[in-house]
Design goal:
The protein folds into two domains: about 70 residues, no CATH class; about 170 residues. Helix 6 packs antiparallel against helix 8. The protein contains ten helices and nine strands. It is of the alpha+beta class. The N terminus and C terminus are likely disordered. Strands 1, 2, 3, 4, 5, 6, 7, 8 and 9 form a nine-stranded antiparallel β-sheet that branches.
Length: about 250
């Protein structure tokens, strides 16, 4: 339970949690149960703060359904949908943006393009002037559904093929959570975990102490990680998006 409380404190990033904990004798769990039971969480952190400091908790009912909702919250994890996109130029065509938005939702963040020159693997199909950037999409996803997004990305790549049958975009869809970035793959690998449905999961970056660190098996451009600044910005948007989590109940 206390791990969940720390998680909530990290989500909201408000400086009121220590005060609430002191006022309610450390029983922050009970306070959250009651917030869920009263349905006041959706009214925003200022309302919650006022309630925490002025309303005697002994007078607030704590319905059973609030506890079941909190149990659901304990086992819920949502993630930010992102994609590392390789293109034969250093900017997005309008049609690509429209297709990506139509497939995955509105773009929330479009990162800077960097030369993709650590491998020649894609050159025969996509040309020599390759660049890669990271983008993110509005909203949050359930990470267990990332395989479905991978299949959608493959379908989109096929729809955008050029007249010679080569891809114009390589879309490495994935997700970001608090601790890591994971890319799904249709190819097996020694460090990938099988997720079912022909999908393996590859953790390429981990996050700790304000920085993203590549895993030992990550591709060369992820080890150099020119996308770090954009990833930090996306992570901040992900954290802000999690503020709406209680409204899922």
């Amino acid at each position: 339970m206390h791990g969940t409380i720390a998680f909530i404190a990290q989500i909201f990033n408000y400086k009121i949690f220590d005060k609430i904990r002191r006022i309610h004798n450390g029983n922050l769990e009970k306070f959250i149960f009651k917030c869920l039971g009263l349905g006041i969480w959706d009214k925003g952190h200022e309302y919650v703060e006022k309630m925490a400091f002025s309303y005697p908790m002994s007078l607030v009912p704590c319905p059973k359904e609030s506890q079941s909702a909190f149990t659901k919250f304990q086992h819920m994890e949502l993630a930010k949908l992102i994609a590392f996109v390789i293109a034969p130029q250093n900017f997005f065509e309008e049609i690509w943006v429209n297709e990506l938005s139509g497939c995955f939702g509105n773009l929330e963040h479009q990162g800077k393009f960097f030369p993709f020159n650590k491998t020649s693997y894609y050159q025969p199909e996509m040309g020599d002037n390759l660049h890669r950037c990271v983008i993110s999409f509005e909203g949050l996803i359930e990470p267990e559904n990332i395989g479905k997004h991978k299949n959608k990305a493959i379908d989109l790549e096929n729809r955008l093929k050029n007249e010679k049958g080569g891809r114009t975009l390589n879309i490495d869809i994935g997700y970001m959570d608090f601790d890591k970035i994971v890319l799904p793959s249709t190819k097996r690998g020694p460090f990938k975990l099988y997720a079912g449905g022909g999908i393996w999961l590859d953790m390429i970056l981990t996050y700790s102490k304000g920085d993203f660190t590549p895993t030992a098996w990550a591709f060369a451009d992820f080890k150099d990680n020119p996308y770090k600044k954009d990833l930090i910005l996306i992570r901040e948007k992900y954290k802000r998006g999690l503020v709406i989590l209680p409204s899922c109940f």
